[in-house]
Amino acid sequence: MSVMASRPVVRWAVPAGVVAAVLGAAVLSNSLRASASVSLPQRSPAQLLVDLQRANLTGVSGTVIENADLGLPALPDSVGGDGSADLNALVTGSHTMRVWYSGPDKLRVALIGALAESDIVRNGSDAWIWSSADKSAEHFTIKDDGDAKSGSTGKEKQPQLSPSGLPFTPDQAAGMVLGLLSPTTEVTTEDNALVAGRPAYLLSVAPRDTNSLFAKIVLAIDGAEHVPTRVEVFAKDNPNKPAFSIGFSQVTFARPDDERFAFTPPPGTKVTEGATPGLAAPFTPPAPSGVKPKTATIGTGWTTVFAARVPQEATTAPKQDAQGVMDAFLNTLPKVHGSWGSGRLLQSRLFSVLITDDGRILAGAVSGNQLQSAAADPAAALK
Predict the structure, then answer these.
(1) What was the pLDDT predicted at 95?
(2) What is the pLDDT of residues 92-121, one digit of tens each?
(3) Residue 111: closest CA among 137, 89, 135, 139
(4) How far apart are the first and last CA of the chain?
(5) Which of 37, 99, 151, 296, CA to CA, is 20 to 30 A from 333?
(6) If we measure between CA atoms, which residue out of 153, 64, 166 comes closest to residue 110?
(7) C-beta separation of 89 from 95 below 8 A
(8) Domain enclosing residue 129, as ranges
(9) Are residues 104 and 201 in the same domain?
(10) Residue 17: CB partners within 8 Å, gap ≥ 6?
(11) Cα–Cα distance measured from residue 95 to residue 109, given in angstroms and rounded to the nearest whole number
(12) Same domain, 182 and 306
């Protein structure tokens, strides 16, 4: 469930046209498998996709467990890890969240740490990001047209309230996954399973291109409500253990009381009006207002490489403390060079990122060598 979505994410992630295109491309397997221990009526992959499209999630609450084992190098302390309540900590370790949803304009996510808690709250036109550790809260006013009004800068594009860039719920993660459906994808079913104590179908999507670092992504779809209750991402280097997973350990499909979404900052909290939700997503340098980076894509499907050139103004602008920490981290990454130039390379189990010395960033679910080959493509020059 996206904080700013106009309706449940599965409603727009798989429109009828996409389902028809997938079926027409013959990417769906006819295999039907049912677990003897978890009995549900048989459903084909195509039927499950239609179920997702037609699902109408009006309310849900429960406990969500997120695990990230991406094989990343040691990250700055500010990113956190197991037991951290920092919203940026979701890129590594195991985390527990409480989630309440009652329509697209009422959502609350509480990231529970060992000694602290961070909350994201959307209640009508009001949105909050609160940290008990920092005793701070950011407030946003959301207009009907999707803009957020900042007290200091006027109208701004509505903020993305997920600083880490990672999903907070299985529904949100499933929306990202289903956006991958294309002729480059194979869709099958796996044995049914119990998720949060409820029978669920398992829908598996996998790249046909063996050069992708992804092995497959498995969506658990509740057998009664037809909404995603768990998403598991498997890397090619270990197809038996998820590199990333997010799912309910306990769930109730009923609308929470409206009082759950009423938020008042605790006494002593420093409140600010903001247009940016704390830290930027990792490896995404902030661009000056009005400056758009040059971008390009190389390849297609699961091995697409995304390239961007950082505006020069961004590299010469005064650096914030958080950005300085990230720059120091990037300088610890291996130095690489080739016909494309030189730079630093980050490799994980699911993606690679290349930061070139001439101000480009390339990223994709491919190996570091493939990423460097893409950097040599004329389209990636971004001149």
Answers:
(1) 86
(2) 788 899 999 998 889 999 988 777 888 999
(3) 89
(4) 38
(5) 296
(6) 64
(7) yes
(8) 9-273
(9) yes
(10) none
(11) 12
(12) no
* Helix orientation angle between 45-54 and 170-178, rounded to the nearest 10 degrees: 120
Under 8 Å between Cβ of 172 and 13: no
Residues 221 and 358 grouped into a single domain = no
- 3-class DSSP state for residue 302? helix
Same domain, yes or no: 212 and 344: no
- Packing angle, helices 45-54 and 16-24, rounded to 10: 170
Give every residue of the chain whose pLDDT is below 70, as ranges: 1-36, 74-90, 144-168, 173, 175-181, 275-291, 312-326
Q: Hey, what are 88's tokens?
A: 């940026």
271 φ, ψ (degrees, to nearest 5): -105, 130
What's the gap between Cα 124 and its chain centre? 23
pLDDT score recorded for residue 293: 77
Query: Both 223 and 325 in a single domain?
Result: no
**All residues at 6 or more sequence positions from 124 whose CB lies less than 8 Å from its CB, including other chains:** 105, 106, 142
Which residue intervals of 123-245 are DSSP H helices? Answer: 170-178
Q: Count other Cβ atoms within 10 Å, centred on residue 284.
A: 15
Contacts of 3 (CB under 8 A, 6+ apart): 107, 120, 122, 127, 161, 162, 168
Length of the chain: 383
Give the bridge partners for 185, in sequence order: 207
Q: Is the dihedral of CA 149, 151, 155, 161 positive or negative?
A: negative
Dist. CA 161–CA 170, nearest whole Å? 16
Asked which of 238, 273, 308 is the last residue of a domain, the reply is: 273
pTM of the model: 0.76
pLDDT of residue 38: 87
Say whether both 229 and 301 belong to one domain: no
As for how many domains the chain has, the answer is 2
3-state secondary structure of 170: helix
**pLDDT value, residue 365:** 95
What tokens appear for 163 in the block? 């600083």
316, 250: one domain: no
Q: In 10 A of CB 272, how many CB atoms?
A: 12
Q: Which value, in Å, is the radius of gyration of the alpha carbons in the chain?
A: 21
